[in-house]
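I would like you to help me understand the sequence and C-alpha cells below and explain how sequence relates to structure.
___
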Amino acid sequence: MSVFRRVRDITAANLNERLEQSQDPVRLIDQFLATTRDDIVEAEKLVQQSTAHMRQLKQQADQAEMMKNKREEQALLALKAGEDNLAKLALQEKIIYEEKLEQYSELLNTTRNSMVDLENQLNELKMEYQTVYNKRQYYAARMETLRLQQRMNQRMEGYGSGQDVPKMFNRLEDRISDWEFEAQSLRDLRRMGQQYVDQASETVSGILEKELARLKQKLNNSGKE
C-alpha cells in the first residue's frame, strides 16, 4: 500500500471520529471533501504522467525488439554469405538489444502494475468522495431542519401555548369581577351614606317641629296672661 493510500485511510478514520464530536459536521465534511478533491486531482495527474511514461517505455521496448530481430536477420544473411565475422558482430548487437528489451519490458511491467494500483486508488477516492458528499447533503438537510426548528421555538417563546389561553381569560375574569365588586361596594357605601343623611334630616326636622310647637305654646300662654 502506498503512502498516499495510507494518508487517505488515516484521514477517513479521523473524519469518523471527529464527526461524532463536531458541533458543525457540515463544515468538517466540506474540509474533508476539499482535501479529497485535491487528492483526486493529484492522482489524476499521476495517472496521466504514468500513461505518458508507459508510452515511452513501450516505444523503447518495441524499438529494442525490432533491432534485435533485424540483427538476427543480418547475422543469418552474413552466414549465408560466408561472412562469419559480420555474423558475429550482428549477433553481438542482437544480444545488446535483447538485454535492452528485457530491461524496458521489466520497467514497463512494473509501471503497468503501479498504474493499475493507482487507478484503483483513484476510483476508491472518487467513490469515497461521492459517499461523503451524499452524507454531506444529508447532514446539511438535518442542520437546516434543526435551524428552522430553533427559529420556530424562539418565535413561539413569546406566545406561550394554546393551553394558556383559558388561564389568561380566567385571570381577566377575576380582575373584572374585582372591579365589579369594588364598584358595587362603592354604590352600597353611597346608598348607606344617603340613608344616613336622610335619617339625619328627618331627625333634625322632628326637633325643629318640636321646638316650633314649644315656642307657639309659649306664645299662647303669654297672651292669656
User: Anything to note?
Assistant: The chain has four helices and no strands. The chain has a mean pLDDT of 79.
